[in-house]
Amino acid sequence: MTEKTKIDTLQDSGDRRDPLELLYHISRELALALDLRTVLERVLRLSLENVGGNNGSIIVVDGNGKPVDSVIVLKDKVIEETTQQLQFTLDQGLAGWVASNLQAALVRDTSQDKRWQMAPNGQATQDKPKSVVSAPLLVRDELVGVMTLTHPEPNHLDETHLELIQTVAGQAAIAVLNARLYGESQRQAGAMAAIAASAAVIGASLDIQKVLDTILEQTTTALNVEAVSLALVDDRKKNIVFRAATGSQSKNILGLSIAIGQGVAGWVAENGESVIVPEAQKDKRFYASVDQNTGYLTTAIAAAPIRSNGMLIGVLEAINPQGGSFDEADLTVIEGIGNLAGTAIEHAQLFEQVEVAQRRYRELFEDSVDPILITDWEGHISETNRQAELLSGFDEDTLKQMNIHTLHKPDWKVLGNELENLKSGETVSYESSLMGRGGSEIFVEIYARSIEVEGQELVQWILRDITERKNLDNLREDLASMIYHDLRSPLANVVSGLDVLEMMLPLDEDPTIRSVLDIAMRSTERVQRLASSLLDTSRMEAGQSIGKPEPVAVTDLVKEAIHAILPSAQAKEVKLETAVVKGLPKALVDAEMIKRVLINLTENAVKYSKEGMTITIGAKRDDNWLEMWVQDQGRGIPKEEQERIFEKFARVQAGASGNTKGLGLGLAYCKLAVEGHGGRIWVKSEKDKGSRFSFTVPVA
Ligand code: ADP
Fold first, then answer.
1. Across-strand partners of 223?
2. Fewer Cβ atoms within 10 A, N terminus or C terminus of the chain?
3. Largest Cα–Cα distance of the chain, in whole Å?
4. Ligand 1 center from residue 604 Cα (angstroms)
């Protein structure tokens, strides 16, 4: 039957009010979109008026068929019924039949219809007979309610009324649907508003404890719950640890560590999903031990993961809502806050790490045994540590008003123009002196490099106090010059004395006298050589050139060197051999100096050789140069030491057994002497495989 014919039929029944008018009124009521109860009450009253009925009801049910709301009119009065009573009505009675069959029903005479006879409270049967129509409120075949109208007389209500109530029920269903959608969107809007409100405050602090407290506060207000707790996944990702909690049990919960997978929070951490647990005590996932220990009763739980950058870092849990249960909107809220919490916690944790790192850096800086200054690229001092203050004698404030370049003598050669050598990121070092308080001069070794502090390019200057080392060097220099000056004149007397003795004594007749005199003369020669080398060294260091070079036969130089060394070589049972190429040209040298070079090298070779080893002294021509060398089979020199040994006072530490006495002056002299002739000196050696010292001098 079409809508049109239905209405025609209704119009036919003379004594009734115009059904078209009724539908018109009803659609107006719907358009006014008042709250659901008011709409349903008006719909019910209009319908009762129209059919002349006395009682009527509309019961609204949820998706599970459970009654959630109702409007009941009994003789003009609106009756309130509890959901329990409604449930009873729905389970039995005519409305129940309509709800379960999803069909409209007409009962002309209630005393004659079984469906009415099994009506509520067993009273129905004692009622006076009457007529009833009832129809389901359907939205796309889903039941959202049941509408019932009764008339005090049997056989008053008929098929036309049945059809009318079906049409009205259709309209009322739309009103219920609208109300549901509206309620849903209201709840969603509420959830969004709660999340937005939380967003505004949760991210406002960088202090981790404050952030956690704010999260709890927001969750408590947004969800209106008794208690909230927050757990974070631990470093090993095996447990979650409760880091914040509110409510009466917060003390028992703080610090509690539970395995991922254990309890509702552990379940959320494991599955990465939010969850509502409506009846915690009956849920297998519920971790009951806290309740058991404290006597607290957890009823319902809503929990959501806390995520940061897509990673689950914790769980947010809300317990015991004031309203008794959580709904989907609550889940949306706790999920939303969980997401906000992740970012806020991550930020606070990062901030905490940065702060810790900064504190550590500051401590390291302060506690460093080296004095350290930090400056900008113009040299203005911005940071100082305790040691720098101690060394310079200036306090922090004074230092911060100074410039590093006036505090010490910068070595611009090493630093480069405008510190350009530092800009490449290298560490440069040089020796300098620091102008301390009261004009004191402190020897320092400077290590400078560029550093980045909080995105700013700065320069770090480490000033190592080398006063002691400098003093030691000076002492050695003084000692060397003292030995030289105080030895020269007495030595000259010894030499001339020995010469006189040699002439006066009958040496040929007494070999003992001869050998004693020989020892005395050789030893004196050694001391003389040492004194001369010291003199030459200090002269050449002062920039003076060598004495007048003359042509000298290489073989003579070698012979004289062997003559000087032979006794000590023999004493040590070391063999001396020569490998001088025949027919070499003469060398253009200060013979005295080069002879001493050769003797020095050979003396060292003997010193570092063992019994039975051989030392070779050789010479060959190389273009315009004569190359001479001394080769031994001794302990050798490690690669990293091979350049250093030519420096003054440089000695190789050879361990207790192989340690030989010396000052570390011999090779420094050789280098100065050879380079003074325009030649060069070098060593080829490997540890335990002997050494070969070579040098060149010009051909005459
Ligand atoms: P000194 O011999 O007085 O220590 P030198 O300047 O002559 O000083 O030598 C410096 C260092 O070089 C020595 O201490 C020694 O460790 C090493 N050295 C020199 N010659 C040899 C060599 N032939 N074999 C091994 N080590 C050597």
1. none
2. N
3. 179
4. 6
Tell the residue number behind the tokens 């906000």, with chain if given. Answer: 340
pLDDT at 507: 65
Nearest residue (by CA) to ligand 1, atom 8, is 664
Residue list, ligand 1 pocket, CB within 6 Å: 604-605, 608, 632, 634-635, 637, 645, 650-652, 662-668, 691
Dist CA 450 CA 416 (whole Å)? 13
Contact, 372 vs 385, CB < 8 A? yes
Distance 696 CA to ligand 1 centre (A): 19
Look up residue 2 and give its amino acid. T
**CA nearest 563: which of 620, 593, 607, 518?**
518
Atom of ligand 1 minimally distant from the CA of 665: 6
Element containing residue 12 per DSSP (H, E): helix 3-12
- pLDDT above 70 as % of the chain: 94
Q: Closest Cα to atom 11, ligand 1: which residue?
A: 651
Is 365 in contact with 389 (CB distance < 8 Å)?
no
pTM for this one?
Answer: 0.48
Identity of the amino acid at 378: E
pLDDT tens for 552-603 read 999 999 999 999 999 999 999 999 999 999 999 999 999 999 999 999 999 9
Q: What is the pLDDT of residues 595-644, one digit of tens each?
A: 999 999 999 999 999 999 999 999 999 999 999 999 999 999 999 889 88
Token code pair at residue 19: 């059904």
pLDDT in tens, 431-469: 999 999 988 899 999 999 999 887 889 999 999 999 988
In this predicted structure, what is the pLDDT of residue 33?
60
Query: Are 427 and 448 contacting, i.e. CB atoms less than 8 angstroms apart?
Result: yes
